[in-house]
Design goal:
The complex is a heterodimer of chains A (about 325) and B (about 775). Chain A is built from twelve helices and twelve strands. By secondary structure, chain A is an alpha+beta fold. Chain B is of the alpha+beta class and about 775 residues long. Chain B folds into three domains: about 50-150 and about 210-300, Aldehyde oxidase/xanthine dehydrogenase, molybdopterin binding domain (Aldehyde Oxidoreductase, domain 4, 2-Layer Sandwich); about 395-460 and about 610-765, Aldehyde oxidase/xanthine dehydrogenase, molybdopterin binding domain (Aldehyde Oxidoreductase, domain 4); about 465-605, 2-Layer Sandwich (Aldehyde Oxidoreductase, domain 4). In chain B, about 25% of the residues lie in helices and about 25% in strands. In chain B, strands 3-7-1-14-11-12-13 form a seven-stranded mixed sheet, sandwiched between helices. In chain B, strands 9-17-16-15-10 form a five-stranded mixed sheet, with helices on both faces. In chain B, strands 20-28-29-30 form a four-stranded mixed sheet, with helices on both faces. In chain B, strand 28 and strand 29 (about 630-640) form a beta hairpin. Chain B is globular and about 85 Å long. In chain B, about 60% of the residues are buried. Classes of the chains: A alpha+beta (about 325), B alpha+beta (about 775). Chains A and B meet through helix 8 and helix 12 of A and helix 3 and helix 19 of B.
């Protein structure tokens, strides 16, 4: 049963920031995960502050210099089906369309998808785990088949977003408005791993609202993709996935970004793999070497060693597919 | 001790007295067999259908149940003081409440627990319950009850439970009685005669039924009489268990279930929440509704047992099976519930020497309930993969191999003949329609995507009860009321039964009113489960309709002064077959206007003497395996079913497609996961983490073929059961297709990408045979 809370729908971003600065409040946007979290006691709230009708936070616009601004309230469906995004930022549209289910994508927002809470079943379930203020991470000795193989420390979640790896590959920045004003930062710096702070997944503080995502203007000879592997054909999070963003020149990779999903507590960028393919043609050998580099530092838990094979397989497949595209 | 019966209910079916004049199945039909949409499709789709969860009665309260959060614990103290004072609360019951001490879970030595037993043997056992004005108040109050638990060591792993030092789930250890043993012939001799002997251990996972509508009951008292609306597959089973629990005569307990959102076996029996609703309603003197949450439905209302099945099989080069030996270790959970699987090994193929040894073990997890073909998909998983491997070893096509070892008698019933077996036709006609040879002989690809095809066969081993009574009433205007005790659990029972009436009386379906599944107003019918709903009820309905027709023709003969033999009932009118031709609409008959109604009662005949009527199936799957990522996609599926006559080819097909989807779940996604090494609690008690297949997991290319052997003996409709066979071999067919595609044999269900990747890696290293 969803516990009692009060609900407020301020008319301006400024008012929303003010209301959200009060302890016990939580931001409501698409609400697809928040209401479930409240019902299950994963999070608590005295008051929900809804930004759902702030029109300025919604929509996809192109600026004069060709860059793209996506309002945080834009739904995953709107992004997945947007012709310009599909053409120039394929990884993002593929990430958005592979998330959740059609109903959830119609309601769920890009801002929510990026800042969603982890899906670890100990965190979500009736277990007083470390991230919820308990003593220990149950995944260490427990059912850890869906947990991280890299970047874990004291807590072993994976970041559940499919759009975030794509956006990082595409060099997206995010704008945050908070009590101290507005700041922008690369999305890559938005996420916080458990080594730093196991109680949070990103830099958002009380009163902070993620308002928009900024994508650089599309470059020539640029291609991107997102490939996700899951245990079920829909409504399932990534066992592992990979976002690729590559700039070619005469078949040679000029610039590459390789970001993994489903393997780490944050979207996991693998610079070493990027280096391997840069300056080369993508062929079986470079793909295989880059894929191997993606799991070089991985230390699997008792039940997720398969992810080593999986990451290698999916990265190899995605790189070779990009060459053929 | 469990009996070694062929029936999963553990008893031979009782029978109602047959009427004189046995009917034989129709030669030709005008309504039966057509692909007709459901008579209640509009109500179901528009939302006007009232399900148990939708029922709201004046003054009704809502119940909530506090459950043990631990895998194994003793309740030391329950304090309801704070909860009782909370707003809207009208009643709280615990183990110490007078009248709540109701025995539950019966074993060989009597009851092994009670309604609120302080010894909680699995997560989710009932500790207390609250009735309040709103669901929120009830849940808030339930949470405000403080319980002091003494946590006990637990065991949730089947093999661990068999260890001598394992924490005992019950006093006297974790074995649920002695092992059950079946033996025919001499397996040692059989293996000695074999040219090839294979032995392998197969494992399956616990599955949860998760019907769309979670379990719910509404209880209302009127003095000492209790009415319960229950989301159930069997109102009469609930009525009798509920009456016994409450010490009431059957006449004081009325149980009804109208629209129902699935059960798959988890709603065949009385559940604790139903008794709790009744107790709360009596205490509060108000009606009470208890609706289980999705999470509760994962813990407390049944599951399909997991099994560890060791299967040894011997075959001669000519394809003759010489011996089959199955050892099963399974668990029905914390209380007695069958986990046996051995039927198919004993009866599906000709084999003179068979040995089956099955052990059920208690663990600290929810108690099993029948789940769509209890035991059969597990056995098919082992047997049908073994058959595939044997065929390969002797160099024979798997379809051909099976075709040559099909029995015409039930070997487990002292070679009693089947009334019909269409298994050979299922295999051959299915293979042809699937283009099996072509797909099978396609060269194996070297690329990352591997395609393969597989086949598996099956049968269902239970004929169902032969007890059912149907009442058919003809109104004076020629329209009809059909009264049956069966639940329509979403399979189209109402539609099919109305079609049988329409066939006999020529009444359009929209002029048939259906009253069903209410112990107060309908006659006994067995629970809608075990593939018995059509075979138990349709023959009785047909007899009731024929009875009406016969009475009507006799009355018309009097009135029209014609011999009864010269009258027929057609298109709502009495017509003469001899000159002068006359046609009198039923509503014009004076006698019917005076009597206003003709009532026909139909009883189910006994089953065929000395024969057994069972359905058969062969299913074919095509899969694509991505060997880089371990993804397995079922891309094509064909099911060929001998379930006798298909009474409605549309609901028939839907039943089969649903069964295939469940098979795909068994094969690729579904498994209960317990935190075995830390807390024993279920970690995936929700619909995201417990993965039932979605539309994206089911192939677009699905075909259902009905193989009708024109069985004249099974019953007067020629129909055999369908619900269980549809899901029995599906997972094994998929596993065999994966083997064909990759050369990897899948011993553990489900085939997740996780498992597939590990097996493929082993294969690379030469570890997989």
């Amino acid at each position: 049963m969803i516990p009692w809370f009060t609900y407020s729908r301020p008319n301006s971003l400024k008012d929303a920031v003010k209301q959200l600065s009060v302890p016990g409040t939580r931001l409501h946007a698409g609400g697809t995960d928040l209401l479930g979290c409240l019902r299950d006691g994963v999070v608590a709230a005295d008051k929900l502050v809804s930004i759902s009708h702030l029109a300025e936070l919604r929509g996809i616009t192109r600026t004069g210099n060709g860059s793209v601004r996506i309002g945080a309230l834009t739904t995953l469906t709107e992004i997945a089906e947007h012709p310009y995004i599909m053409e120039h930022y394929a990884a993002l549209s593929e990430g958005a369309s592979s998330a959740a289910s059609p109903q959830l994508r119609n309601q769920g927002t890009i801002g929510g998808n990026i800042s969603q809470r982890p899906r670890c079943w100990y965190f979500r379930g009736d277990f007083h785990c470390l991230r919820k203020g308990g003593e220990a991470c149950y995944a260490v000795a427990g059912e850890n088949q869906f947990h991280c193989i890299v970047g874990g420390q004291s807590c072993f979640i994976v970041h559940p977003s499919d759009t975030a790896p794509a956006l990082i590959a595409l060099e997206a920045r995010v704008r945050i408005t908070g009590p101290q004003g507005t700041r922008t930062l690369p999305l890559e710096s938005f996420f916080v791993g458990p080594q730093k702070d196991f109680t949070r997944e990103n830099v958002l503080d009380a009163g902070d609202i993620l308002t928009e995502i900024l994508l650089p203007a599309p470059a020539a000879n640029h291609r991107s993709s997102y490939r996700k592997v899951r245990a079920r054909g829909a409504w399932d999070f990534a066992l592992a996935g990979v976002a690729l963003s590559v700039r070619f020149s005469n078949g040679i990779v000029q610039l590459a970004r390789i970001v993994l999903s489903g393997v780490a507590p944050v979207p996991w960028r693998v610079r070493e793999a990027e280096k391997i393919v840069t300056g080369k043609e993508i062929d079986d050998e470079t793909a295989s070497q880059a894929a191997a580099a993606c799991v070089k530092d991985a230390v699997p838990l008792a039940k997720n060693e398969y992810k080593l094979h999986l990451v290698r397989g999916v990265v190899e497949e995605a790189l070779l597919a990009m060459k053929q595209a | 001790m469990r009996t070694d019966s062929v029936n999963y209910m553990g008893e031979s079916p009782p029978e109602t007295q047959g009427q004189a004049g046995t009917l034989t199945p129709w030669e030709e039909t005008t309504v039966v067999g057509k692909p007709l949409p459901r008579v209640d499709a509009y109500e179901r789709v528009s939302g006007s259908a009232v399900y148990t969860q939708d029922i709201v009665l004046p003054g009704m309260l809502y119940g909530a149940i506090l459950r043990c959060p631990h895998a194994h614990a003793k309740v030391k103290h329950v304090d309801t003081g704070k909860a009782a004072k909370m707003p809207g609360v009208h009643g709280i019951i615990t183990d110490s409440t007078p009248g709540a001490n109701i025995p539950w879970y019966h074993g060989a030595k009597g009851a092994m627990s009670r309604l609120f037993d302080p010894h909680c043997r699995h997560e989710g056992e009932e500790v207390a319950a609250v009735a309040a004005e709103s669901p929120h108040q009830a849940w808030d109050a339930a949470k405000a009850i403080t319980v002091e638990y003494e946590r006990l060591p637990f065991v949730t792993d089947i093999e661990d439970a068999m260890n001598s030092g394992a924490p005992p789930v019950h006093e006297g250890g974790n074995r649920d009685g002695d092992s059950s043993v079946y033996q025919r012939g001499d397996t040692a001799k059989g293996f000695a005669e074999a040219d090839v002997v294979l032995e392998e251990t197969y494992r399956t996972s616990f599955e949860i039924h998760t019907p769309m509508e979670t379990h719910a009951s509404v209880a209302q008292w009127d003095g000492n009489r209790l009415t319960v609306w229950d989301s159930t597959q069997g109102v009469f089973a609930v009525q009798s268990s509920l009456a016994e629990s409450l010490g009431l005569p059957l006449s004081s307990v009325r149980v009804a279930c109208h629209y129902m959102g699935g059960g798959f076996g988890s709603k065949l029996d009385l559940s604790k929440h139903t008794v709790i609703a009744a107790l709360l309603a009596r205490m509060a003197a108000r009606p009470v509704k208890v609706t289980l949450t999705r999470e509760e439905s994962f813990l407390c209302v049944g599951n399909r047992p997991a099994n560890i099945i060791k299967l040894k099989a011997g075959v001669k080069k000519d394809g003759t099976l010489t011996a089959l030996e199955l050892t099963n270790l399974g668990s029905g959970g914390a209380y007695p519930a069958s986990s046996s699987v051995g039927y198919l090994v004993r009866d599906l193929y000709l084999c003179p020497n068979v040995h089956v040894d099955e052990t059920n073990v208690f663990i600290n997890a929810g108690t099993a309930r029948a789940m769509r073909a209890p035991g059969f998909p597990q056995c098919a998983w082992a047997l049908e993969q073994t058959m595939d491997a044997l065929a390969e070893k002797i160099g024979v096509d798997p379809v051909e191999f099976r075709v040559n070892i099909i029995p015409t008698v039930s070997q487990v019933r002292n070679n009693m003949p089947f009334t019909s077996t269409g298994l050979k036709r299922c295999l051959l006609e299915g293979a042809k329609a699937f283009r099996w040879k072509e797909a099978r002989e396609r060269p194996r690809q070297d690329g990352p995507i591997r395609r393969g095809v597989g086949v598996a066969a099956g049968m269902w081993g239970w004929e169902g009860e032969t007890v059912s009574t149907a009442i058919v009433k003809l109104f004076a205007d020629g329209s009809v009321n059909l009264n049956i005790g069966a639940s329509d659990i979403g399979t189209g029972t109402k539609t099919v039964m109305a079609m049988v009436v329409a066939e006999e009386l020529g009444v359009p379906l929209e002029k048939i009113q259906i009253e069903y599944a209410d112990t107060g107003t309908t006659s006994y019918a067995p629970g809608s489960g075990g593939s018995q709903t059509v075979v138990a009820n349709a023959p009785a309905v047909r007899k009731g309709a024929v009875e009406v027709r016969n009475q009507l023709l006799e009355l018309a003969a009097d009135e029209l002064k014609r011999p009864v033999g010269e009258l027929v009932l057609k298109d709502g009118a009495i017509q003469t077959t001899a000159e002068p031709i006359k046609k009198v609409p039923i509503s014009d008959l004076q006698i019917l206007q005076r009597r206003q109604m003709i009532v026909g009662v139909g009883y189910r005949d006994r089953g065929p003497e000395g024969k057994v009527a069972l359905p058969f199936v062969a299913q074919f799957a095509e899969v694509e395996v991505n060997i880089r990522t371990g993804e397995t996609k079922v891309v094509r599926f064909l099911a060929a079913h001998d379930s006798g006559r298909a009474l409605n080819s549309l609901t028939f097909e839907n039943q089969v497609f649903g069964g295939i989807a469940m098979g795909i779940g068994f094969a690729t996604t579904e498994q209960r996961i317990l935190d075995s090494r830390q807390t024993g609690k279920m970690v995936n008690a929700n619909w995201h983490d417990y993965k039932i297949p979605t539309a994206m997991d089911v192939p677009v290319d699905q075909t259902c073929i009905s193989i009708d052997p024109h069985d004249k003996e099974c019953n007067n409709t020629g129909a055999k059961g369908l619900g269980e066979p549809a899901t029995i071999p599906a997972a094994a067919a998929i596993a065999n297709a994966v083997y064909h595609a990759t050369g990897v044999r899948l011993k553990q269900a489900p085939i997740t990408p996780m498992q597939m990747l590990s097996l493929l890696a082993q294969q690379q290293e030469g570890g997989n045979r």
